[in-house]
């Protein structure tokens, strides 16, 4: 098997230390940060100039220090729906996150909380998965989405909710089984129950199944 190709990354982060740290991590894993910027307008300009393989951006940055980074990412996705975007933030901007996930059925997008990204290998894996068209959503973001939609999610058992959260991270049945210390057959049974209770048709494609669940949670 050939090695995965290096990625060309545009990074947007207004904190200099964080920007340098993320750049160092990406470089360590063989990727090229073609430009690292500190505000939303510069992010848009950098993407237009470099046509990167992926954008990694903070949410809150200049000029308004609100959700400028996330709004810029959404605008960039409107211009180019194929552009992979990974958001890293200290905050959960639920409405804007939902809008980002809505873009092109949540393909090639991610939303991670900074204080939960403690393993650089996991972070690098998330970057690669999003660049390859996958979806990576922090479990805490999933919990916020769940809290906004109580019906018919109230029909799910506590175990089914755990499985649903792991499904939304793009985890395979085997990975879920290992994490919950149950059999793969038990995971399959839980997933079938979840899809039935949420009126979602079963699908062998893990990514499509995640998209269906996320679409339901955002509705």
Automatic annotation (TrEMBL):
The GO biological-process annotations, alphabetized, read as:
phosphorelay signal transduction system; regulation of DNA-templated transcription
- Any Pfam family hit: Response_reg
Q: Which GO terms describe its molecular function?
A: DNA binding
Q: CDD domains of this UniProt entry?
A: LuxR_C_like (cd06170), REC_NarL-like (cd17535)
- The segment(s) forming the Response regulatory domain are 8-129
- Residue ranges of every copy of the HTH luxR-type domain listed in the record: 149-219
Q: What keywords were assigned to this record? A: DNA-binding, Phosphoprotein, Transcription, Transcription regulation
User: Which InterPro entries has this protein been placed in?
Assistant: CheY-like_superfamily (IPR011006), NreC/VraR/RcsB-like_REC (IPR058245), Sig_transdc_resp-reg_receiver (IPR001789), Tscrpt_reg_LuxR_C (IPR000792), WalR-like (IPR039420), WH-like_DNA-bd_sf (IPR036388)
Carrying 4-aspartylphosphate, the residues are 58
Entry protein name: DNA-binding response regulator
State the taxonomy lineage.
Bacteria, Bacillati, Actinomycetota, Actinomycetes, Streptosporangiales
């Amino acid at each position: 098997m050939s090695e995965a190709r290096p990625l060309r990354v545009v990074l947007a982060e207004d904190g200099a230390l964080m920007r340098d740290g993320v750049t160092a991590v990406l470089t360590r894993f063989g990727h090229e940060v073609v430009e690292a910027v500190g505000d939303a307008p510069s992010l848009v300009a950098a993407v237009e100039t470099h046509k990167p393989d992926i954008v990694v951006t903070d949410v809150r940055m200049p000029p308004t220090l609100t959700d400028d980074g996330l709004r810029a990412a959404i605008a960039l996705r409107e211009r180019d729906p194929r552009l992979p975007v990974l958001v890293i933030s200290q905050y959960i901007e639920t409405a804007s996150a939902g809008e980002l996930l809505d873009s092109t059925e949540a393909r090639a997008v991610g939303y991670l909380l900074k204080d939960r990204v403690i393993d650089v290998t996991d972070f690098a894996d998330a970057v690669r998965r999003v660049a390859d068209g996958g979806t990576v959503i922090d479990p805490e973001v999933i919990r916020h989405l769940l809290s906004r939609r109580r019906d018919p999610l109230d029909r799910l058992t506590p175990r089914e909710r755990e499985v649903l959260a792991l499904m939304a991270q793009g985890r395979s049945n085997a990975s879920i089984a290992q994490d919950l210390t149950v059999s793969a057959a038990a995971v399959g049974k839980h997933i079938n129950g979840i899809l039935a209770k949420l009126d979602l048709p079963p699908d062998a494609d893990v990514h499509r199944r995640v998209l269906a669940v996320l679409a339901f949670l955002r509705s």
